[in-house]
Amino acid sequence: MSKTIVNIIDKINPLPAYLFTKEYYEEGDELLLISAEEEINCIPLLIKALDIDETLVKTIVVKRYQDKFLYERICRTIKGNLIPNKQYYLNLAGGNRYMTLSVQHVFEEFNTLFFYTQTRENLIVKTIFDHSIYDDDDEVFPVKHRMTLKEYFGLYGLQSDVDQPRKQVKETTFSQHLFTMFSQNMFSRGDYEVMSTLREKYRNWKFLIISQVEKPEKEYMTAIPNLSKFLDFIGFVPERPGSLQNYEIEYLTGGWFEEYVYALIKGVLQPDDIAMGVHISNGIIKHNNELDVCFMKANKLFVIECKTGVTSESLFNEIVYKVCALKEVLLGSGNSYIFSLKKDHKGNWKKTAKYMGITFCDWLNLTKPENLKHILNEMNRIAKES
User: 122: closest CA among 296, 305, 377, 314?
Assistant: First the structure.
């Protein structure tokens, strides 16, 4: 028997409506969306993300009366659009409390099963509204559906290149090798100067000839006399002998750390979906925003900004503000982290990041097994994998 899936639209948090529909929608069902007038702009995004035929979707729009939501008007508007004897599956997660109370009251007069989608716990509660509160007739079901990054971005109206993820430049073992060298302070001042000059002067170049960079004849080129020595020291073999391609320059100037973190998360947490170097945009902000490492686990989004080193407090604040903007403006309820090999001895940077809702993991967190295990376990706890 077909049914009608009912959701209350919430543009700030469309996840409960999406997951509830994914769990219970079957071929032949209809979808009913109840929305305040100012929320209706997000309905097309939800329908597109669900990939449901628009002819099977009906909408009830609740309008304000003299700039106020009036309970009786809300109830009359909704009731006038419902059909007796039709089977409704109502998700009460969404909208404000006033709207939810109105919706619940109206649907109690119809053939309705009531649910509440708890995205934080990744659970759906089925409940019966009756006069007995002692028969323990509530039922709890885990949400089985697992979202991909593409699903999540699409639901929040974000454009992305997640379908063309950046590939690893080197095998994971080589990134682990570089991590060991960095974490154990095996680099000299000259090695850091090589990496710094590569980053500042050549990171946007399509390619460079190593011999020409070591002894440049062009005035616009900055010399790196020990480039070959540095590459030999770390054991880096260019794909094309005698030159470095753009992706290799990016790898040497920090991309290796992103690959290290990517492999770490993928191996230990086993996320449902993971990618690195994903560019996203909300269609309003002109420039793209790059997510160094992002992954989905149990329908939670995690984003990690990877920085091998942070040279000053002002630079750290810039990084924090960037991550904060991504978290608040673009990524809804995403969980944000900064991974860095910088030593935060006094814990001041951790406090600054925490104040902005971001977790900062420094050298001590990443190099000490017990500390790293704590960070990864905390991610699992947040995901609440059922």
Answer: 296
Distance CA 178, CA 235 (A): 10
Q: In whole angstroms, what is the distance from residue 258 CA to residue 304 CA? A: 9
For residue 97, what are the contacts with CB-CB under 8 A and spacing of at least 6?
none
Residue 94 token pair: 């969404």
Whole-angstrom Cα distance, residue 181 to residue 349? 24
What 203-208 contacts at long range (C-beta under 8 Å, 24+ apart), as own/partner pairs, is: 203/249, 203/250, 203/253, 204/246, 205/246, 205/249, 206/245, 206/246, 207/240, 207/243, 207/244, 207/245, 207/246, 208/243, 208/244, 208/249
Q: 99 Cβ partners below 8 Å, 6+ apart?
A: 8, 34, 36, 62, 69, 74
Q: How far apart are CA 363 and CA 356, in angstroms?
A: 20
Q: List phi, psi (to 5°) of 199.
A: -70, -45
C-alpha distances (whole Å) from 271 to each of 16, 265, 274, 343 are 20, 8, 6, 28
pTM of the model: 0.90
Closest C-alpha to 380, from 295, 297, 274, 264: 297
Q: DSSP 3-state assignment of 316?
A: helix
Residue 359 CA to residue 378 CA, distance in Å, equals 11
Coil, strand or helix: which one is 113?
strand
pLDDT at 95: 79
Q: Which of 383, 234, 371 is nearest to 301 (CA)?
A: 383
Element (H, E) at 209: strand 207-209
Mean pLDDT score of the chain: 88
Q: Which amino acid is at 126?
A: K
**pLDDT, tens only, 8-47:** 998 888 999 999 999 999 999 999 999 988 888 889 999 9
The contacts of residue 288 (CB under 8 Å, 6+ apart) are 279, 280, 281
Strands 358-361 and 335-340, how do they pair?
parallel
Looking at the DSSP bridge assignments, the partners of residue 300 are: 297
